[in-house]
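Pair request: fold both.
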Amino acid sequence: MAFEKKVTITNETGLHARPASQFVKKADKFKSKIEIVFGEKEVNAKSIMGVMSLGISQGTEIILKAEGEDEEEAINKLESFIKTEMEE
């Protein structure tokens, strides 16, 4: 069963270029399959092209979804990264 959380993007530039790259690197550290759900789209959170294709801007609500042995840790760490560590 997957673990998921709704997260609002607070970064001024959204999830583009540098922040997207940082996010993907962070997601890639986990063994679980991790996806970002935005509207009708669902992409692999470990794919820079997939993440950037969503065009996620500041204030956007997304769903982070993970399935695998470290799913809960992955989502909690990625949520924390989005809220506190993501650079412009």
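--- second member of the pair ---
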Amino acid sequence: MLLINIVTYSRLQTKQLSSKRILIAFIAIIYSFSLTAQERTFEEDLNYVLNKKFTSADSLAKYVMKYRRDTLKMQTLLKESNQKKYFEGASFANNVLGIYFRDKSKYEKAIDYHKTSLNIAKNIGNDELTTSALNMLGVVYRRMDQVRMALDRHQMALSIAENSDVKSEHITKSITISYNSIGNIYLTLKQYESAEEYFRKALSLEEFIHSKLGLAINYHNIGYTYEAREVFDQALTYYKKSLAYNNEIDSDLGRVICNNSIAQVYLKQGSFQKALELIRTTLTTSVEIGDPYYIAMANISTGWANQELGYYSRALHHLNKGLKIAKENKLQSFEAEAYKHLSNLYAAQNNYKEALGYNRLYQEKEEQFLNESNQRYMFDLLTKYDVEKKKAQIELLEKENEIVNIQLEQRNKIFMFIFMFSLLTIAFLVILFRQKKLAGEKRFLSLEQKLLRLQMNPHFIFNSLLSIKLYMLNNDKKSAVAYLDQFSKLIRTILSTSMEKEISLADELKTMQLYVNIENIRLCNEIDYKVSIDESLDLDSIKIPSLTLQPFIENALWHGLSAKDGYKSLNLTVRKDSNDYVEISILDNGIGRERTMKIETEKKKNNTKSIGIALTRERLANFSKNFANMHSLNIIDLYNNNNPSGTQVILKIPVR
């Protein structure tokens, strides 16, 4: 009947309408009817859910989650579910309301809703709703920087989900949320490798269930682990992958998070104008979203970018605004970040009094955050212990009719235990903090002492004195005096330079010349030692840890060249590798490391690694911490027609 009416109507309009156009019109009308039929009102969805009483969280979400931003509708679902004793619906509604208030930074209210949801879910034994409530509760605690509380909830959710008999997509999603959240907690604790490990676990599951939102979240978080480790190119790659998924699902919040992170990388790379232009878009959108967490984040980033560009009044405005929002909503990490950038802002304006004041606030907030986290964690552990003990004691007391007296006694014991344990823990943390300050200096002194003992090797001193004695017995006084003069200069140089943390490269090369001269005399002057230096280098201005080259030259002389027949050469070359490095090459034409090890094995010597070189590596690592670039050390075995033809050591020292 519908087809006849459509055709009649078409003929009245125009006789020239083709059959093809009639068919298109028919399909369009049928499609519009089908859409109208599919549209459902909230009342219809509510009644359907209440009648079906779904126990699956996924089934509930299908009909209810589209109303998640309407608190009146969620309250209606909660009220109706309570009246009809539909506990799954009540738990689900409480959890959704908790998420809503979390996104408005009303954390205490959110916690109440999530706890109510959790209690209901536990009572009915629903693993899907239990893990969901635990994870969402953990997210709230994480937003409040209560990392220990958050970690406990996410770990409980993960344990329940992994051991659940229910194998649904919702359970899989709960596992990914737990992985992701635990990864974020590791980020807070600055354990970036562990964080990346959990994010990649979550990413793998998100790929399995084809969740674009989950992929967007985890790509972003992996990017942050690279940003924190200053691998900026990798960080940008992952941030842009996340942004692409957020664009696919049209998530304004996702775009705010990604663009803010990309802008922060630009700031760290020095692209300040590029960063500011990107941050401006996030500031506008974050205000439209209305979540104070992201508004504070966007304002602080905007202030940072303006400060780097020299727009100090704008920077001050946005940093103060971000700080105010962070304080009002108890966002401790953002509060600390605002203090840090305010300190930098005032320092840039030469207002060092204000800069120092904000720096102190930053340090205090960081310290307070860490201390509060530790105290909360200790309190949580003790509270759990207290609850478990009380349950066991109450059962025993009910049987013996002595509940009140024993309960009071137990409370006193637990109170004293908490008090004493807290005092001991605080004392331990204070001592640990003080000892950590001295650890670096002690380690450096230990390395220097070990190296000095190696370089003042008793065998070297004994053999040198024996050589002098032989010259004297052979009545070769001139050689004895010359050798003794060289030996005394070397010992004096070693003792004086060992007191210095670093010396000039010029002094280091002079010391090595003395060392080679003495060892060459012992080797019957068979070594052809040559030094080649790039004339463009100012050796007096280039610093190096004292006696760094000695272990490598010693190995070349006594392991590479001493056992070689024929011509023996040792070449030391110093050249400018780049503006950032000076390259030092030590090249010998000896027998090579492989043959040396065979000879030592035949002599039944211990096949151990060079202690001197190991210590030198540690000293170089410690030395490089003061520079923008790290050192590099390569030991290369040389071959000629597959036969060992020597060894080359290439050491690159940072110069700025």
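Observation on the second member. The chain has a mean pLDDT of 81.
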